[in-house]
Write a structure and sequence with these properties.
alpha/beta; single chain; 10 strands; 5-stranded parallel sheet; globular; 9 helices
């Protein structure tokens, strides 16, 4: 295969987790997109697109190609060895979220064997079993990919996350800081989770309750708390100590999740602080799961 510069993005993940949304985001970003390509055709397809000099290609694969999915990790390694820029994204969501989405759309899971004539309880059990089987089939690919948990985010947020990740420097480790609310669950895509619920809470300050950790008054309040300063320093020390080792281990992305009760004040403040600190030396993204708007890119 004659190798020309090409950026290849592979999107896989759980059925109902948002793969179509992610693929549309990449199409908007200028990628030539192909949905549900059989893994057996991946190498030949890339060779064909190389002949067409396609600079940016995105491919979605899912469990409908279950028998040949074990080929994918080795194929991606071969493509990287040939000099292609390859990024693998895995869309995930909690089982409860996937069950709810299937119930709302009334679609049938690709691994489900229950027909519409069975009782609703049987259909629910069959759907849960199909989701569990799908997780097992996709486990090896998930381990090779950057995981995005779509359980608690809107389609617009997911599109923003995908575009931000793909826009990061391809040859460097990308550090993702994400704030979240423990009351809505821990992000499944987190590599490290820090609980900051023990810090003084601006929620109980009447002048600060309606603001967020991105607002100056809240930031000033927390910066004046010794516990918040100590927590910031300790997280910086831990992450900073291990980042070089993770980069040497060829990690593409590392997600550090910071959680407080409501995901509005303390976790948001610390994500802003950490992204600013590490953004001087690393490709750094920040997300605020519970707040409106899209993720922004820190200085890098």
């Amino acid at each position: 295969m004659t190798v020309l510069p090409m950026e290849l993005v592979l999107i896989t993940g759980m059925s109902g987790s948002g793969k179509s949304v992610a693929l549309h985001a990449l199409e908007d970003a200028g990628f030539y997109c192909v949905d549900n390509l059989p893994p057996e055709l991946l190498m030949d397809f890339v060779a064909l697109e190389q002949q067409h000099a396609a600079p940016r290609v995105a491919i979605a694969m899912d469990v409908r190609s279950a028998n040949s999915l074990p080929l994918v990790p080795e194929q991606l390694a071969r493509l990287r060895a040939l000099g292609l820029t390859v990024k693998a994204l895995f869309l995930d969501a909690s089982t409860d979220t996937l069950v709810r989405r299937y119930s709302e759309t009334r679609r049938k899971h690709p691994l489900s064997q229950v027909d519409s004539g069975h009782a609703s309880t049987d259909q629910h059990r069959a759907l849960v079993d199909a989701i569990a089987l799908e997780r097992s089939v996709l486990e090896a690919i998930r381990a090779e990919s950057h995981v995005i948990d779509s359980s608690m985010i809107r389609a617009a947020q997911l599109q923003g996350y995908v575009k931000a990740l793909i826009g990061s420097a391809p040859a460097q480790l990308t550090l993702v800081f994400e704030s979240f609310a423990f009351k809505r669950g821990v992000p499944a895509d987190a590599d490290y989770v820090f609980d900051v619920r023990m810090l003084p809470n601006p929620h109980y300050e009447s002048a600060l309750k309606a603001q967020t950790g991105r607002d100056a008054p809240v930031a000033e309040f927390l910066a004046a708390q010794p516990e918040a300063t100590q927590m910031r320093a300790q997280i910086i020390d831990f992450v900073g100590h291990w980042l070089p080792a993770m980069a040497r281990d060829h990690r593409s992305y590392v997600t550090v999740a910071i959680g407080c009760t409501g995901g509005q004040h303390r976790s948001v403040y610390l994500v802003e602080q950490l992204a600013q600190h590490f953004g001087a030396d690393w490709v750094t993204l920040k997300r605020h799961r519970e707040l409106d708007g899209l993720p922004s890119v820190a200085k890098h």
